[in-house]
Amino acid sequence: MGGTEARDGRDGTEAGARDGTDGAEAGSDAGGTDGGRGTHGTAEGGAPAALTTPRGRRPVVAALMLGMALAAIDGTIVSTAVPQIVGDLGGFTVFSWLFSGYLLAVTVTLPVYGKLSDTFGRKPVLIAGIILFLIGSLLCAAAWNMGALIAFRVIQGLGGGALQGTVQTIAADLYPLKERPRIQVKLSTVWATSAVAGPVVGGLLAGYADWRWIFLINLPVGAIALWLVVRHLHEPARPRPKTRPRIDWAGALAVFATGTLLLTALVQGGVAWPWLSAPSLGLFAASAALAALTVVIERRAAEPIIPGWVWRRRTIASVNLALGAMGLLMVAPTVFLPTYAQSVLGLGPIAAGFVLSVMTLSWPVSAALSDRVYNRIGFRLTAIIGMSAALLILLAFPLLPYPGEPWQPALIMLLLGAALGLFQLPLIVGVQSTVGWAERGTTTASVLFCRQVGQSIGAAVFGAVANSVLAARLLDAPAPGLPDDLDAVARALEDPGALSAAATDHLRRAVDAAVDYVYIGAAGAAALALLALVVLAPRRFPLITEAVSTEAALTETDGKQGTSA
User: Residues 463-499, buried b or exposed e (16+ Cβ, 10 A)?
Assistant: First the structure.
């Protein structure tokens, strides 16, 4: 079907084809592949797919990259300044909530912001998110104790959730299908660069200035992004709805409460209390009960925060599950590889960070080239090839020799980045192209939400796996009183003079075995992602072809929207 797919906006009704039909493809271009060539133009309801013309897109893209940098770097920049923060404010026993509180706020608000952006537009949600993030940053810089800093980090996270979801949604709105890899590669590069630069910048500011500058530095960057959005992002006028949009506040509160309890149980279980203790069991039981209540509320809501079609459409459901599994496996390199590099290979923090950072070099390159693959063979098959390669690469990690050379895990990470770039970007571009403007925010938010939840589950599960392997390996330790959890072992190995040579070697081998099992578990997560794509995903994604008049496509105005057909 050439032309715009009509929707009535209700529960996944599609004109021409249903997402659940295996092998069907709605709105595909001549050529027939699900990675085909969408044309520049209007999405459902008459809203142009490209919100600005090519000239006007440039400042908007700059704003999106700055917004993505704010959200990405904030997750890593604080880590290297923890000693200075704790030394100044105290609160060593609860400092982990500096990260957990931010993660919780980002994750549980993603579905809410996605629905709001579909209802009221992207621009107001993005502006509100930037302002909230900057207010949180300013408050963090003024924090007087650890409790206040944690509370202000949560405020930051409330803004960060709007940044992450809305930036990705606007990126899909700005570009037609065949050009979307361009903006996604730019955002991936920003994310990768921020992941590497964050610890370095945080360490420099904490060491040579003051840790409060870690938060103050967000203010000028965010102010520029805010000005660019206000000045240059012009959303198209949409038909006024016949009835006033209703916000599902009960559903939003239920989603927020369920996510908060579940993620708290995952983040704190095995750390603040044992997994089978009353707090863990109580939190899991309460989150399960709230999840059931959320389903009931959302079924009855006129405009639910998480609509049922997110899980009823095979394409969206399969991508959500696949990217959730990817979030699960990403815990292995991002959390455990630096410990492996320092404890087993004996590298310093900077060198250990480099072993991990090589993954961020190959990922954007692979993502940039992925369109040449999925335009030929489709989104689903491209992602299957990428995750199949990732599965083999993860299984290769336990085969590395002990203790080995640093280039060996670095090569593994370089290959893994290439494989995951080939997996993630086609799925994100593909799933965003199966929905119109009024559903794209919700769809994008559901994908990011599942990926974030996968990371939280992965951190809990693989942390338990690593510590259980360590405990088993240390039963026959050559010296009494050795630590039996990964963090304590890593700290003990930082001062090898306090241990005998035999005890040091035993601890290193125990860490090596623990990380090997984590990578085997990550390979299991890769297998789950493949299963979701092979069993659930349709062979061809049912794309919506977006069309616009030639005059509109060629018209250029400085920052103003083109005329849509």
Answer: bebbbebbeebbeebeeeebbbbbeebbebbeeeeeb
β-partners of residue 269 are: 273
pLDDT at 214 over 90: no
Convert the pLDDT of each residue in 78-96 to its tens digit.
Answer: 776 777 888 888 876 677 7
Pair of tokens at residue 518: 């984590």
* CA dist., res. 339 & res. 330, Å (int): 15
- Cα separation of 425 and 353, whole Å? 24
346 by Cβ neighbours in 10 Å (0-12 / 13-18 / 19+) ranks as middle
Q: Report the SS3 class of residue 6.
A: coil
User: Phi/psi class of residue 27: alpha, beta or left (left: φ > 0; alpha: ψ in -120 to 50)?
Assistant: left
Region for residue 524 given its phi and psi (left: phi exceeds 0; alpha: psi -120 to 50; beta: otherwise): alpha
Name which residue leads in pLDDT, 292 or 204: 292
Q: In whole angstroms, give the CA distance from residue 476 to residue 470.
A: 11
Q: Which helix (H) or strand (E) holds 547?
A: none
Q: How far apart are CA 513 and CA 526, in angstroms?
A: 20
State residue 539 phi and psi, 5-degree precision: -60, -35
Q: Cis bond leading into 241, ω under 30°?
A: no
Enter the tokens of residue 208. Answer: 């040579």
Report helix, strand or coil for 159: helix
Q: What is the DSSP string of 309-325?
A: HHHHSHHHHHHHHHHHH
Q: CB atoms < 10 A from the CB of 395, how many?
A: 16
**DSSP code, position 540:** S
User: How large is the angle between the packed helices 486-493 and 437-473, nearest 10 degrees?
Assistant: 70
SS3 state at 42: strand
As separate numbers, helices (DSSP H) first and strands (DSSP E) second, the chain gives 21, 0
Q: Are 565 and 49 in contact (CB under 8 A)?
A: no
Q: Residue 246 corresponds to which amino acid?
A: R
265, 280, 520 from 270: Cα distances, Å? 9, 9, 21
Phi and psi at 231, nearest 5°, equal: -80, -35
Tokens of 352: 């250990």
Tokens found for residue 257: 């409460």
The model carries a pTM of 0.79
Q: Residue 497's pLDDT band (boundaries 50, 70, 90)?
A: low
Residue 171: both structure tokens together: 């990126």
CA-wise closest residue to 43 among 3, 11, 14 = 3
**Exposed/middle/buried for 93, CB within 10 Å: 0-12, 13-18, 19+?**
exposed
Three-class HEC string of 427-464: HHHHHHCCCCHHHHHHHHHHHHHHHHHHHHHHHHHHHH
Distance separating alpha carbons of residues 115 and 303, to the nearest angstrom: 9
3-state helix, strand, coil in the chain (%, to 5): 70, 0, 25
> CA of 258: how far to CAs of 252, 288, 457, in Å?
10, 8, 15
- What is the per-residue pLDDT across 174-210, written as a single tens digit (0 to 9) for each? 887 777 877 888 887 787 777 667 767 776 777 777 8
Closest CA to 337 of 358, 324, 318, 352: 352
Assess whether pLDDT exceeds 60 at residue 27: no
